[in-house]
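notes to self, project folder thing:

trying the whole complex as one job this time. last attempt i did each chain seperately and stitching them together was a nightmare. two parts in total, labels are on each line so i dont mix them up again. if this works i'll redo the older ones the same way
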Amino acid sequence: MNEHKEITTPLDEKTVMSLHAGDEVLITGPVYTARDMAHKRLCELIDAGRPLPVELAGAIIYFVGPTPARPGEVIGSAGPTTASRMDAFSPKLLATGLKGMIGKGYRDATVRDALMKYKAVHFSATGGAGALLSRHIVSSEFVAYEDLGTEAIRRLVFDKFPAIVAYDAYGNSVYRV
Amino acid sequence: MLRPVEYQTIVDAVCNLCMNIACNLSDDVLNALKAATVKESNPSAKGVLMQLLLNAQIAAEKKLPICQDTGLAVVFVEQGSSVFVNPPNGRPDATITDAINEGLAKGSESGYLRKSVVADPLANRSNTNNNCPAVIHYFAVSGDKIKISLLAKGGGCENKSRFKMFLPTAYKDDIIEWVVDVVRQAGADACPPFVIGVGLGGDFELAALLSKKALLRRLDSKNQNDYYADLETELLKRINAVGPGTGGLGGDTTALGVLVETAPCHIASLPAAVNIECHAHRHATACI
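result (full assembly):
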């Protein structure tokens, strides 16, 4: 394996600015999960000027809908979902202080611009490696929208969760497209 | 004489298939991943391929799904003309479709699979909470067996699948260029390295069906027609030359295999479909 940078959450500006597209990182600390429907609800709250059920300042959101945990396990399989489906929502969350996101695949220009404007970073984890990635999650609890099932917002705690900096706060990308 | 198959036998077979494929990659997919890992020249892509092999090992050992998207169940049934499904006691109207869905619900619960199906596409996207209904395709064949093939299709890759109606005068290179472009556009979002199913001919819906049915073939198989076997080889070479590479990180491995299936078609048409399948290529067959 290549050399990794170890980072901890919540993310501060100094950490964000130390990360560059292509850096391989190991993330430790709490993160929130959210997928399509949770993003839609969070943005509807922001539009209505109402408080959010989670504190996003400095937070990382992991785009994941895990499988149910077997008895005695913290979580089931838990790899990233396609990040571009969150493109329409992410800039609004970044404006409230979100500092990082984890998904798989590409982000659009509005997100890349917002990462620069708000000094934040987008990570990619290996899509389809849900069994491996789940081994780096040491706790999981529901914090909002439990009615959404697998799409609910959870608070996970990572232990050296492997990811790559896909889009940095300088406008650079690990992808060629 | 018609051979009876008990309803519960179908339920149990589908239940076992969906639990099994969620956690275990077939040997042809594992072999292709191993070969790609050895060959890969890009260090980042090689690292991802190594993660995928380790992931497969953890999934099998821990009975943990390979991917959290345990998929939409797509079922291909080949039912012999000399076999029938015996309905259970007290449910004379129960069909093989009911048995397949019952097996799917049971396997999704017992296998701790994610509930990834909503009952309605637009008006009310409420989760069915049992992964039902499966998408089922029936084929009438001769004999007294029922062959059930289950494909667990992830949403990320399915979203990138495409259809195009070509002119009947199109050249082979036109098709190749389009397929390569569809794969390039699928990119990192759809979890490369892919398995690419290509359906040519038939009509609007048959081309799409063929592109998915092609995915049931082993990765080490070839189309039985030499022309299309060569097309598979050429497409694989072209796709791997263009990228996006494993995880979208470049390198030598965008697809593990290309599988082409064809059908006769109208003189005015050349329908073509590409079904993108991720590296978590989960499928298995039971013969009853």
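what i see at first glance: The domain at 5-167 of chain A is CATH 3.20.130.10 (fumarase).
need to look closer tmrw
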